[in-house]
Amino acid sequence: MSTADTPEPTPGKRGRVNRRGFLTGAGIAGAGLAVGGAAGAGITYSATADQSSDPGAATVPFYGDHQAGITTSQQNSLVFAAFDLKSTTVHEVEVMMARWAAAASLLAEGKPVGPVESRPEAPPADTGEAFDLGPHRLTVTVGFGPSFFDDRLGLAAKRPAALAPLGQLAVDTTIDPSISGGDICVQACSEDPQVAFHAVRNLARIGRNVVTLRWLQEGFGRASATSTSQVTPRNLFGFKDGTANIKAEERSVAAQWVWVGDETDQPWMSGGSYLVTRKIRMHIEAWDSDDISDQERIFGRTKDSGAPLSGGSEFTDLDFTATSADGHTEIDRFSHVRLAHADNNGGAQILRRGYNYTDGIDTRTGTLAAGLFFMAFQKNAHEQFARIQNNLAQDALNEYISPISSSLWAIPPGLTEIGDWYGKKMFGYQG
Q1: Which residues contact 271 (CB under 8 A, 6 or more apart)?
Q2: Which residues on adjacent β-strands are paired with residue 151?
Q3: Which helix (H) or strand (E) segment is 375 a member of?
Q4: What is the dihedral sign for C-alpha 354, 382, 336, 315?
Q5: Contact criterion met (CB below 8 Å) for 279 and 212
Q6: DSSP β-ladder status, 273-282 and 211-222
């Protein structure tokens, strides 16, 4: 289809737009941004990582069937941001999404989002704190919350049924609305925390006339393994976390449980996924006072090797029927590993991608304000995550944790080529 024949959309209404004019003339070029990875070719900037020797030069492909940052081998640092819309003009949101896509494609290659000194009397297009660092396997993942599809943009008919709010789940008695939800989310993961921060900072700056930052969470030390090549990490309670997680190499499992398929009521979500984020406060001082035998009973695994209490090594299948000499099951019926296991949740699985976090000290109690920023990708959160979470209502671990935020996001499919942008098909563009 020729793009020259498509008219400019009326703000707030559905329509088509001249692709070339939209992506190069609607404020994008003015911000120093071009579209796609080739945009950095004419940009002059400070030293970049030596591609031949610096591990910071490692990149993750930006374009593909799925957005990077989901089954991507998990990086060590996270910056996650939730935004609320300031603008209710569809065209402005579309322009921002196109500009974000252009910027993210450059950032994934370790390039700045625009020239630095082209306009001496204006702020630089890129904030500059990552000029010398390289990409460090940066991935940028963008999604939409349920509230994005309310009446402000007239997109209610585009909201997938699977994006219906999760509502209050088991043990959700301490959720803080100010650090939950939002219209749009950005997940930036990298091996370098400053690279991840730089990505979110620059997208926020690009979108400052359209969105405002609602909340932000930093994460350190991955608390999941998403590849068979990765060692299972430990959470702040000292236990290995996510031994049985879905791995990127298990493509058939990911197809079954992670990626949205033809079953969706919204074709624009095919190839995407649904993300649940939860900030879980860990009561570390209380945990540190508990006996090791009780800690292991609560998790259902040994603390040193991560082996199930039913015997074997870390990756040995759990035996929920194994009993001790006194007749009790080796893996307690209220243990975390038992209640979360797929065998006890109708086979449901999720792809975990969490991070440890710390907010310093809780000044009210003088205790550590730290825990797990839990993230999980799946085909349908209501049928997968919610089922598992409600089964965890009896989890013995609940005595030591408190969920304080909870959010659900629709993560659209990947950007397939230069000129594609986040939510493009959702907004009605097919080319």
Answers
A1: 65, 66, 259, 260, 412, 413, 414
A2: none
A3: strand 367-378
A4: negative
A5: no
A6: unpaired
Cβ atoms of 242 and 352 within 8 Å: the answer is yes
Q: Is residue 290 exposed (0-12), middle (13-18) or buried (19+ Cβ within 10 Å)?
A: middle
Q: What is the pLDDT of residue 290?
A: 98
User: Largest Cα–Cα distance of the chain, in whole Å?
Assistant: 79
Helix (H) or strand (E) holding 338: helix 336-340
Degrees to nearest 5, angle at CA 76 with 96 and 306: 135
Distance of alpha carbon 364 from alpha carbon 82, whole angstroms = 26
Residues 345, 391: contact at Cβ < 8 Å? yes
Residue 403 pairs in a beta bridge with 280
* For helices 193-206 and 90-107, angle between their N-to-C axes, nearest 10 degrees: 150
CB 257 within 8 A of CB 71: no
Residue-wise pLDDT for 2-25, tens only, equals 333 333 333 333 333 333 333 343
CB 277 within 8 Å of CB 260: no
State the Cα–Cα distance between residues 249 and 111, nearest whole angstrom: 29
pLDDT at 50: 42
Alpha helix (H) ranges present in 123-173?
Answer: none
Residue 218 CB contacts under 8 Å (≥ 6 apart), including other chains:
77, 78, 79, 80, 193, 197, 357
313: buried, middle or exposed (CB in 10 Å: 19+, 13-18, 0-12)? exposed
**Interval 403-407 mean pLDDT:** 98
Distance of CA 316 to the CA centre of its chain: 29
Rg (CA), the chain: 23
Number of residues that this document lists for the chain: 431
In angstroms, rounded to a whole number, what is the distance separating the alpha carbons of residues 327 and 365? Answer: 41
